[in-house]
Amino acid sequence: MSRADKSPNKGAPSKGQGSEPGGIIWLVGLIDLMLPWVGVPLALVGLVMGVRGYANGWWLLSLGIAMLIVDLMLTVFWSRSEGQRTDQPTLNRRGTQYIGRKVCVADAIVGGEGKVRVADTVWPARGQDCAAGTWVKVVAVDGAKLVIESIDERRDE
Fold first, then answer.
1. For residue range 73-124, what is the model confidence (pLDDT) as tens digits?
2. Which is it for the CA torsion 63, 64, 66, 67, positive or negative?
3. What interhelical angle do 22-51 and 55-79 show, nearest 10?
4. Cα separation, 136 vs 140, whole angstroms
5. What is the CATH number of the domain that holds 102?
6. Does residue 35 sit within a domain?
7. In angstroms, what CA-CA distances link 55 with 39, 58, 79?
8. Is residue 68 part of a domain?
9. Quick check: 35 and 70 in contact, CB under 8 A?
10. Which single residue of 21, 41, 54, 79 could bond 49 by disulfide (Cβ 3.0 to 4.6 Å)?
11. Bridge partners of residue 147, in order along the sequence
């Protein structure tokens, strides 16, 4: 048996072979931070040189503006990214965790507004009018309010 077969990390990627794009993300972030610091002075110097009659000034101005446009494109792309995918998409979104759950009406729902009890917490709710003590189902979340609908008693849920 070779020494590689006895390794406790057999099959694990060695350093530098990981599948994480962390280095590239840091590099793009660093470039995104540096472009305005280089582009703005370059454009200003180019503008001053161009106004004074130097032919190279307009090239510097164009290069500075191009850097700022690239920075803007990176910022827009960066802000529209999906973010990280997770196995717990409702983490830190308490209201969405209750969708599909049966809850009890704490204060009667009158005029479409009332309160429901979820575990030991009372939440504001909106939905069809119903009396206190009625069991309802959470179907959506609207800001801090749970949107509820009455449970059809004929169905077994």
1. 888 887 776 566 777 766 777 788 888 999 999 999 999 999 999 988 899 9
2. positive
3. 150
4. 12
5. 2.40.50.140
6. yes
7. 19, 6, 37
8. yes
9. yes
10. 54
11. 126, 140
